[in-house]
């Protein structure tokens, strides 16, 4: 794949040796990597179709080092790309050839756990799952659970505002972080929020969450931890049409039930998953729904009975309830393995991530089938049905000339379709480089300029992760210009009193 | 006296802002004015009234989403939602009675601009967590949008979060989209009569740390408790824990809590109607209502770590004869201070500074709100960033300039 990135700065590259030497003084020991072989692991993130070696990799260990590296790069006009575990599916951590790749992996300590205030203070390189594991003995957990949670880091989760299968009930990252320490590109260190529930002044933490590493580098995060529900049970429900499945989802929510998780798969995804993990999925259905309820046992049993009833009313042809923890995990096993399962039936697949209003699901699936025929590529769908987040997996073979390009075009058409029906380009994977050039499908130039003015407030020289999110880079001075038309008639037709 | 300009649609809002820009005017942005006395008292050349931008433009209960023009009365939205057994789960507060204006006057735009969240904040999140999409006019006189109508969306910066709680200083919102949620089938409140406030704080910590899924945790010492009808008969400091959900679940969780809290004091319970009344009173700060015995006091809203709240309240009582009560499991302190030259700012800021958190002066005469910081003062780095953020939206200071801090 190819994507236009900001032009390499020859003057910076010419000074590479000097820049590396300075960085070594800031981060001594083995924290600066400049050999090609050792930098190779950093050349891409989870979106492996894009690759670029950075100019140099820096792995700082303290906030002061991060501040010194950023401050130095700011003064010298050197670009910086921050990176957590590198699991981004949108190229958010794709390096720049004339930029510093700032790896945050060494920030891997849990600094404090405060059960009485139900928070944990962690460094950004701590993995998502490690937070839950650290508080598990006390009966707590950290709610957002992206499927990469074994590897992805909290810092990356903040940058991408990561979700997971349980976010319908428990929210995404932004709803579960209370504070952070942030280093700006100019080297200034800030604290946003803290151990309390609401923000003093502007909710800057709220925009740092999901800013894809363009506003600052997070060096500490305060997250909310929750008491583990007493129990969880799941229902596995099969339908002969996606319309029936969609109606069931709407009626569950209409009945006032907010499940902990609600996932749907279409026929190709069901078959791929079943062939792979043998979870006992029915193979003669068009849509399979997993509805998980968590909470006190009395509540879960009561609501599950209602879900079963609603499923029957929506013409479900199969409905199994988990009767043990093993059975519940088995229901999930197929869904959780859906991506690798699809990987087994196709040499390559391309994972998309749009969100649509739930009611549009049958329409979108129908249109997607037409697109599939048009492009001559198969597609399998897994769907966070509760919140409308769709993950079409486009199957292709990168060794067949032109297939990758066809897959990309197919994917772009799917995302345009999501926006057309009232949805958005990305629900949880981020814009990155992948969807950058599709941003105008959703936003006007005025919308994008306003967002970039916010970027300018944090990073006036546009040195932090440039080339991501925004299709056109404007200079901050140009964006700041005002066009005021003096002498305008002051709206004579407006009521005044 | 500033002139009122009433816009009827987003295009007129743009026109007014462009006029203000061209003529170098500063505008006060109001909905229906119910929270007009909150914030730094500043001078504006004219008032831009958004109450004419009214009406619900989309409501799809099965999609859990509602859009409305920014000036739509909150009451109108709540009535419509109730018809589908839904609500705004963040439980927006009505500060009308606290501020001495009629109840029920707020607009959805005002609620979001102030990021007003009620007792359920501890479980369901704040207004900002339910704010999905926006169309607004910046201080550059340009309309822009952010977010959308779906819950899961990471497309571009989440400007909704920034606008929530920005008190109209970044943009004049013209239309908003919010998440709606099903109302709980039933609610019940467990009351404890603890021996003192510190013990109450411990009880709330135990309750919040259990799987009882408490959706409201507040403590009212004897003075404030005597101002709430539902608690008067108990005659003393009372801790309230709300349980919401389906009947078998509420019954079960009530048992769980009763066992956990047996050692904390005598237990009572409030059935649904009384429970609703109690939480409305807590949400709207009824103990400190303008017409009541604490009506002449200056009221501070303090946000802190839940275990710190009671300690802050104790110090404020000792040093300034404050009356306080606690919501958000102790993390939200409402403190009413007797009139003082600086509204008690120096003391409040010192105590909160030590404990960690921030304080906002919610009720005080305009002369004082012009003199002391209403919002928590910022360190120079944060203040400079705040100013740059503001200038990105409103470089000439047209919108509510000076309402949060001088120049912001």
Folded structure, characterized:
The complex is a heterodimer of chains A (497) and B (408). By secondary structure, chain A is an alpha+beta fold. Helices cover 35% and strands 19% of the residues of chain A. Chain A contains 18 helices and 19 strands. In chain A, the strands form four sheets. In chain A, strands 12, 13, 14, 15, 16, 17, 18 and 19 form an eight-stranded antiparallel sheet that branches. Chain A has a five-stranded antiparallel sheet with strand order 5-6-10-8-9. In chain A, helix 9 (242-254) crosses helix 11 (297-313), helix 10 crosses helix 13 and helix 14 runs antiparallel to helix 15 (403-420). The radius of gyration of chain A is 24 Å and the shape is globular. The mean pLDDT of chain A is 94. Chain B has 408 residues and is an alpha+beta fold. Chain B contains 15 helices and 18 strands. Chain B has helices spanning 10-23, 74-83, 96-99, 108-113, 121-124, 159-163, 197-208, 222-225, 229-232, 247-260, 272-283, 309-320, 345-355, 366-371, 380-393, and strands at 3-6, 27-30, 46-49, 56-60, 65-69, 86-87, 131-138, 143-147, 171-179, 181-182, 186-193, 216-220, 238-245, 266-270, 298-304, 323-327, 332-337, 357-363. In chain B, the strands form five sheets. Chain B has a five-stranded antiparallel sheet with strand order 4-5-9-7-8. Chain B has a four-stranded antiparallel sheet with strand order 12-13-11-14. Chain B has a four-stranded antiparallel sheet with strand order 16-17-15-18. In chain B, helix 12 (309-320) runs antiparallel to helix 13. The two termini of chain B are 22 Å apart. The mean pLDDT of chain B is 96.
């Amino acid at each position: 794949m190819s994507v236009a990135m900001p032009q390499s700065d020859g003057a910076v590259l010419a000074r590479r040796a000097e820049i590396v030497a300075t960085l070594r003084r800031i981060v001594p020991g083995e924290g600066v990597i400049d050999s090609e072989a050792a930098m190779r692991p950093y050349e891409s993130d989870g979106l492996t179709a894009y690759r670029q070696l950075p100019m140099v990799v820096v792995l700082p260990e303290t906030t002061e080092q991060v501040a010194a590296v950023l401050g130095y790069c700011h003064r010298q006009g050197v670009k910086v790309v921050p990176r957590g575990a590198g699991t981004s599916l949108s190229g958010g951590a794709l390096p720049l050839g004339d930029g510093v790749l700032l790896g945050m992996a060494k920030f891997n300590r849990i600094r404090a756990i405060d059960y009485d205030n139900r928070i944990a203070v962690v460094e950004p390189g701590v993995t998502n799952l490690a937070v839950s594991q650290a508080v598990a003995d006390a009966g707590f957990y950290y709610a957002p659970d992206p499927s990469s949670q074994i590897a992805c880091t909290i810092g990356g989760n903040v940058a991408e505002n990561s979700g997971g299968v349980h976010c319908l009930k428990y929210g995404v990252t932004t709803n579960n972080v209370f504070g952070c320490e942030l280093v700006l590109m100019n080297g200034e260190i800030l604290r946003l929020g803290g151990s309390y529930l609401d923000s003093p002044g502007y909710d800057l933490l709220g925009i740092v969450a999901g800013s894809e590493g363009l506003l600052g580098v997070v060096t500490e995060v305060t997250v909310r931890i929750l008491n583990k529900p007493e129990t969880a049970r799941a229902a596995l429900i099969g339908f002969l049409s996606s319309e029936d499945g969609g109606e069931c989802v709407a009626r569950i929510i209409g009945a006032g039930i907010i499940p902990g998780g609600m996932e749907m798969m279409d026929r190709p995804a069901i078959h791929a998953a079943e062939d792979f993990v043998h979870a006992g999925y029915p193979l003669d259905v068009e849509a399979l729904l997993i509805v998980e309820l968590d909470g006190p046992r009395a509540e879960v049993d009561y609501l599950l009975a209602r879900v079963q009833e609603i499923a029957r009313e929506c013409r479900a042809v199969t409905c199994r309830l988990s009767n043990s923890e093993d059975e519940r995990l088995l229901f999930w096993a197929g869904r959780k393995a859906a991506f690798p399962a699809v990987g087994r039936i196709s040499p390559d697949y391309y994972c998309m991530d749009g969100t649509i209003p739930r009611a549009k699901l049958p329409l979108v699936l129908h249109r997607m089938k037409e697109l599939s025929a048009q492009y001559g590529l198969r597609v399998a769908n897994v769907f966070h049905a509760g919140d409308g987040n769709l993950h079409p997996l486009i199957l292709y073979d990168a060794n067949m000339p032109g297939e990758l390009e066809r897959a990309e075009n197919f994917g772009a058409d799917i995302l345009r379709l999501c926006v057309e029906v009232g949805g958005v380009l990305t629900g949880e994977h981020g814009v990155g480089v992948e969807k950058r050039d599709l941003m105008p499908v959703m936003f006007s130039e005025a919308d994008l300029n306003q967002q970039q003015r916010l970027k300018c407030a944090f990073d006036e020289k546009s040195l932090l992760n440039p080339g991501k999110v925004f299709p056109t880079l404007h200079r901050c001075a140009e964006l700041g210009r005002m066009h005021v038309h003096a002498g305008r008639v002051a709206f004579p037709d407006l009521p005044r009193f | 006296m500033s002139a009122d300009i009433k816009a009827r649609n987003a295009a007129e809002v743009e026109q007014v802002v462009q006029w203000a820009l061209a003529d170098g005017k500063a505008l006060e942005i109001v909905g229906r004015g119910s929270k007009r006395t909150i914030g730094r008292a500043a001078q504006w050349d004219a008032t831009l009234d958004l109450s004419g931008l009214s009406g619900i433009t989309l409501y799809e209960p099965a999609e859990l989403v509602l859009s409305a023009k920014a000036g739509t009365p909150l009451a109108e939205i709540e009535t419509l939602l109730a018809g589908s057994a839904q609500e705004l789960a963040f439980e927006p507060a009505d500060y009308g009675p606290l501020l001495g204006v009629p109840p029920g006057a707020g607009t959805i735009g005002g609620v979001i601009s102030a990021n007003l969240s009620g007792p359920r904040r501890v479980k369901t999140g704040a207004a900002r967590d339910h704010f999905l999409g926006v169309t607004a006019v910046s201080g550059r006189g340009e309309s822009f949008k952010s977010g959308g109508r779906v819950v899961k969306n990471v497309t571009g910066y989440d400007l909704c979060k920034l606008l929530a709680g920005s008190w109209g200083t970044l943009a004049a919102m013209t239309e908003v989209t919010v998440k709606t949620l099903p109302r709980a089938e039933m609610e019940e409140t467990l009351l404890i009569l603890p021996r003192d406030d510190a013990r109450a704080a411990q009880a709330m910590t135990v309750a919040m740390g259990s799987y009882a899924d408490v959706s409201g945790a507040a403590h009212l010492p004897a003075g404030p408790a005597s101002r709430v009808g539902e608690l008067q008969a108990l005659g003393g400091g009372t801790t309230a824990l709300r349980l919401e959900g389906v009947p078998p679940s509420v019954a079960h969780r009530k048992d769980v809590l009763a066992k956990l809290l047996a050692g904390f004091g005598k237990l009572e319970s409030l059935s649904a109607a009384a429970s609703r009344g109690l939480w409305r009173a807590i949400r709207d700060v009824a103990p400190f209502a303008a017409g009541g015995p604490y009506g002449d006091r200056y009221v501070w809203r303090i946000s802190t770590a839940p275990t710190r709240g009671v300690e802050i309240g104790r110090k404020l009582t000792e040093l300034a004869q404050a009356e306080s009560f606690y919501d958000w499991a102790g993390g939200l302190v409402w403190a009413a201070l007797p009139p003082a030259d600086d509204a008690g700012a120096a003391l409040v800021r010192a105590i909160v500074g030590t404990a960690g958190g921030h304080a906002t002066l919610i009720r005080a005469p305009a002369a004082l709100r012009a003199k002391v910081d209403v919002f928590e003062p910022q360190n120079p780095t944060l203040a400079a960033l705040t100013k740059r953020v503001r200038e990105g939206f409103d470089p000439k200071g047209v919108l509510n300039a000076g309402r949060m801090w001088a120049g912001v």
